[in-house]
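# step 3/5: fold
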Amino acid sequence: MDNKNPPKRSELKPGMAVWVIEKEHYGTGNYKQGIVERILSPGETHSRGIKVRLEDGSIGRVQWIIED
């Protein structure tokens, strides 16, 4: 299910590839892959993950960073 230790805000940058969970899919394991356009959460951490807008316009909380 959802990552218990999602990445911190300081670990994220626009242009990064990530896996996010959208609000309507919390707890389902239905993750979405995308590229960060903008970081929306003001804090360094959040229990469900930092909220971002992806380049396709969708909004979700980052669960994992996709490593090259």
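# step 4/5: annotate
The beta strands are 17-21, 32-39, 51-54, 59-65.
# step 5/5: archive (pending)
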